[in-house]
Amino acid sequence: MSLIEYEREHWRTQAALLDPNAYFLIHDTGHMLDVTVPVGHTWHASNTFQVRFNEPDILGEDGYPGYYKSGFLRPLDSRRTIALPSGTRVRSNIEQNGAYLWYADPAAIWDTDERYQTDARGLYYERLQRLTTLPIREVIIELRPYGESGTQLELELPEFESAMLVGASVFDATWLNVGILNVMSEVNNIHTVRFAESLLQPFRRDRIGHPVVRVKAGNYAGHLNPEPNDPEGWDKTGTGNILYAVLPEGW
Fold first, then answer.
1. b/e string for 15-42 if b means 16 or more Cβ within 10 A?
2. What Cα–Cα distance (Å) separates residue 13 from each residue in 8, 37, 81, 169, 180?
3. Which are the contacts of 105, defined by CB distance < 8 A and separation ≥ 6?
4. Are 15 and 124 contacting, i.e. CB atoms less than 8 angstroms apart?
5. Going by CATH, does the domain composed of 20-108 fall within 2.60.120?
6. Rounded Cα distance, 197 and 242, in Å
7. What burial class does residue 118 get, using C-beta atoms within 10 Å of its C-beta: 0-12 exposed, 13-18 middle, 19+ buried?
8. Where in the chain is the domain with CATH 2.60.120?
9. What is the DSSP string of 2-68?
10. pTM of the entire structure?
């Protein structure tokens, strides 16, 4: 391809990464997720959970290579994706469940909007500029002080078609989900963290598994049954929140 063609492809892709219609979720609650990127497409993954890519070289210290968890990608951000070329195979980990792949497929939507053909670069910058004019909405989930570790709370998102996730934080909780997607990093399922991220992730409400925000309670010790006199093991209060903007028609 010529330089002009390379630039055209680049801007078509960048504009599509800001399009909620470009994103798809493949989720398997067993351990049977097995997909291959089709010919003529490049998928851009921004969130993965318990998957393996192609045919990995694996060293297992205990003699069970490939048995344990790997294949995670976060935070949930369209600016930090992994390009999966045509022919890339993505599978669940062996003997693990709950695997998912959240990815954009730009080529799947390029023919749905003429702007991808006529001025993709302009479309990309137009979307960034329009985002600065949209009202920010917030969802906050508060865990009660000295509550029970392992408690999960979820709040259903209001009715809308598409939105842009622009920020998130966790304060003394363990993890934060939008739908089934992991928004940011964590330590484990019990250890509390204080993480915050500026994000840029479009999504359709009907494509994230469940239209909810979910937060889990934990403690500083990082395990379910701390010693009675261990102050780091006391169950703690915590919060999780997301910031998002509802996307208008014609986005």
1. bbbbbbbbbebbbbeebebebebeeeeb
2. 9, 16, 12, 28, 25
3. 22, 24, 41, 43, 44
4. yes
5. yes
6. 10
7. exposed
8. 20-108, 135-246
9. -HHHHHHHHHHHHHHTT-GGGEEEEE-SSS--EEEPPTT--EEEEEEESEEESS-----TTS-TT-S
10. 0.94
Chain CA centroid to CA 246, Å: 17
Per-residue model confidence as pLDDT tens digits over 169-209: 999 999 999 999 999 999 998 999 999 999 999 999 999 99
Report the DSSP beta bridge partners of residue 191.
Answer: 219
Position 85 pLDDT exceeds 90: yes
Look at domain 135-246 and name its CATH class.
mainly beta
Please tell me the distance from the alpha carbon of residue 144 to that of residue 153, in angstroms, as a whole number. Answer: 11
Give the Cα separation of 172 and 122 in Å (integer). 41
Q: Distance (Å, rounded) from C-alpha 113 to C-alpha 66?
A: 42
